[in-house]
Design a protein that fits this description.
mainly alpha, 3% strand, 50% helix, elongated
Length: 460
């Protein structure tokens, strides 16, 4: 699913002028002493952890050779991590240092190691989500963002335990080595769209950003709310990318067997395969990228976004169950049906779910949301291990009291009612292991009062 065809961009900074490097030795020494004294005064204002990091950075710089050289990926990563976690003053100190000349293409930028910070910051995740929503309103890039998240997590192999060899949602798709895989053609455009958001919110990992973008795109296109969690850790080197060939092919000799081979390897089942296939309700296939589809149709010739390609549905930026309806009917030659689409209504097991989703959009939305969330977590290493929820946990609806439930001779209460009763019991100081403390004196007085009252009734 692809939408935009953006031109590659490059990032460069101008080299230092010859005048600035041809300074007399005495003037250079004086300038260096002044700068050192100023930096020392600023250093005293920093927290101790930041001072330690700055001293390490300074000592390393003092032993480095004088000629400016392109920074290594590791040094760039360390700089980003320190700037993201230290005080604003530390950032200004780094920004005021003279930087070496650097010419960095978009491809090389994507290969820079990720900062070794902990999990993504929840507030930055929320901010990034709002930026993605605005991006979707102007670029109509819902399909390609969904595809980016899927292709990052879809390399997972359940038979490999070691991270990151097992693949999955770990941000490896930002590296050029993986972007060159045939199945990822055109996804560099998705990275370019998200690049300004990543720069604005550096404490969001690439792995989280890719999955956040995909889930937000589904929801903004009218789809279900995805129960997402975040805190995915990024891989740090291109060598940690998975080998090519783990993603599904559009036209294999045996489509049903191929889909099962790929998705079963991820730990998904037939219902999840069919539900996830329904995301083709969004987007278009471009023959210059995938080898499938028409160059343009009456539904795609005018965009929105870059025109062209062939869509699976008429309204290819609206998330609904029309994919299943259109695949089942096959009445419109301008709508795409891949071999892996058609088999959903041919394979007996797949057909049960495809027919259900064509008739019941609510059932499709429910199953899709669960499958999407599961796919987005595959292979991920979370920090913290339980993940980060940025929307809060959904509140369970209180159980309605029905007298018949408890007066029909049934002695067993529902689990929800048991939990409710336990919560009320604990709220007044009780627990399963410790009964409530009794006020014996009060109990005796109540007993005597009740006895006196009964005695008076009898006498009268």
């Amino acid at each position: 699913m692809e939408l935009l065809a953006l031109q590659p961009q490059s990032f460069s900074s101008s080299p230092p002028s010859s005048a600035s490097t041809a300074t007399a030795p005495m003037a250079a020494a004086s300038s260096s002493l002044g700068a050192t004294a100023a930096a020392s005064r600023r250093l005293l204002l920093l927290p101790s952890a930041s001072r330690a990091r700055l001293r390490l950075s300074s000592s390393a710089a003092s032993t480095a050779p004088a000629p400016a050289a392109a920074p290594s990926p590791a040094s760039l990563s360390s700089l980003r991590c320190l700037r993201g976690s230290s005080s604003p003053l530390a950032s200004r100190l780094f920004l005021h240092q003279r930087r070496p000349s650097m010419h960095l293409s978009a491809a090389r930028y994507s290969g820079v190691a990720s900062p070794k910070c902990a999990a993504s910051d929840p507030e930055q995740l929320k901010g990034a989500r709002e930026e993605i929503k605005e991006l979707l309103k102007t670029k109509f890039c819902h399909p390609i963002l969904v595809r980016l998240g899927w292709h990052d997590s879809g390399t997972y192999n359940k038979n490999i335990e070691e991270w990151p060899k097992r693949g999955g949602a770990n941000g490896s798709l930002r590296f050029e080595m993986e972007l060159k895989h045939a199945a990822n053609a055109g996804l560099v455009n998705a990275l370019k769209l998200l690049e300004p958001i990543k720069e604005k919110y550096p404490s969001v990992t690439h792995a989280d950003l890719f999955q956040l973008a995909g889930a937000t795109a589904i929801e903004e296109a009218g789809g279900p709310k995805i129960p997402m969690k975040y805190g995915r850790v990024d891989v740090s080197r291109p060598e940690e990318c998975p080998e090519e060939g783990r993603l599904p092919d559009a036209g294999p000799p045996s489509p049903a067997d191929h889909l099962r081979e790929v998705f079963y390897r991820m730990g998904l089942n037939d219902k999840e395969i069919v539900a996830l296939s329904g995301a083709h309700t969004l987007g278009r296939s471009r023959p210059e990228r995938s080898g499938w589809g028409k160059p343009e149709t009456k539904y795609t010739k005018d965009g929105p976004g870059a025109p062209g390609g062939q869509s699976w549905t008429v309204q290819w930026l609206k998330f609904d169950n029309s994919y299943f309806k259109d695949i089942k009917e096959r009445r419109d030659e301008d709508l795409l049906v891949l071999p892996t689409d058609g088999v959903l209504f041919e394979d007996p097991s797949f057909k049960v779910y495809a027919e259900k989703y064509a008739e019941d959009q609510e059932a499709f939305f429910k199953d899709y949301a669960e499958a999407h969330a599961k796919l987005s977590n595959l292979g991920a290493k979370f920090d913290p291990p339980e993940g980060i929820i940025i929307d809060g946990l959904p509140k369970a609806a209180p159980e309605k009291f029905a007298a018949a439930t408890y007066s029909s001779g049934k002695r067993e209460l529902s689990d929800a009612m048991k939990q409710k009763m336990l919560a009320e019991y604990q709220a007044i100081g009780g627990s399963p292991d410790k009964p409530l403390q009794s006020n014996y004196f009060l109990n005796i007085i109540i007993f005597i009062a009740a006895l006196a009252f009964l005695t008076s009734l009898v006498v009268n």
